């Protein structure tokens, strides 16, 4: 996986609240190219594996319940400096702290239901992309 790629999920609250189109529009308007895209729903085992790094955190059970509560949209995005630029575009984890105009500022409802995921490193972008997409689904 090239290091100019990142992985995102539009989380169940964003899908439930009808924000798929608006969020994808903001992502592409900011210069990201969508190179993989699907709507899917995580099983409990999927969510526990994807968020394994957080399994000691007090909110882990809540996080897994939320992330399996409805469909998500998963995508791989390409742009120079993709990981850092996408973290800037989504804003802080807690929407109350997310900068004006960021995706979490515009679309998130709480620190738990915060609309989008964004990989935090090139290595995790590659791992998370491979978790969701076969090679023939990546363009
Ligand atoms: P990030 O998504 O901004 O990278 P992380 O710290 O990696 O934030 O946390 C992963 C996800 O876990 C968050 O996006 C959010 O959905 C959830 N989460 C993080 N902190 C809390 C919390 O204090 N309470 C409930 N859920 C949380
Ligand atoms: Mg994170």
Explain this structure.
- This protein is α+β, with helices and mostly antiparallel strands.
- It has one domain (5-43, 71-133): 2-Layer Sandwich (Alpha-Beta Plaits).
- 40% of the residues lie in helices and 17% in strands.
- It has seven helices and four strands, in the order E-H-H-E-H-H-E-H-H-E-H.
- Strands 2-3-1-4 form a four-stranded antiparallel sheet.
- The longest helix is centred in the last third of the chain and has 11 residues, at 122-132.
- It starts with a strand and ends in a 7-residue tail after the last helix.
- The model has no long low-confidence stretch (mean pLDDT 97).
- It binds inosine-5'-diphosphate and magnesium ion.
- Inosine-5'-diphosphate binds next to helix 4.
Let me know the largest β-sheet: 4 strands, antiparallel
Oligomer classification:
single chain
Helix content: 25-40%
Poorly predicted ranges (pLDDT <50, ≥5 residues)? none
Question: What topology does this entry show?
Answer:
Layout: E1 5-10, H1 12-16, H2 20-29, E2 33-40, H3 44-50, H4 60-67, E3 72-78, H5 82-90, H6 103-107, E4 116-118, H7 122-132
Antiparallel strand pairs: 1-3, 1-4, 2-3
């Amino acid at each position: 996986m090239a290091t100019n790629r990142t992985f995102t999920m539009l989380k169940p609250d964003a899908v439930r609240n009808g924000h798929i189109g608006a969020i994808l529009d903001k992502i592409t308007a900011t210069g990201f190219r969508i190179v993989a895209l699907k709507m899917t729903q995580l099983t409990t085992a999927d969510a526990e594996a994807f968020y394994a790094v957080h399994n000691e955190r007090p909110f882990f059970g809540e996080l897994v319940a939320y992330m399996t509560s409805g469909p998500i949209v998963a995508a791989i995005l390409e742009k120079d400096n993709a990981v850092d630029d996408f973290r800037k575009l989504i804003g802080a984890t807690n929407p109350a702290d997310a900068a004006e105009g960021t995706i979490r500022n515009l679309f998130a409802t709480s620190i738990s239901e915060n609309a989008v995921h964004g990989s935090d490193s090139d290595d995790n972008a590659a791992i998370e992309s491979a978790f969701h997409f076969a090679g023939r689904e990546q363009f």
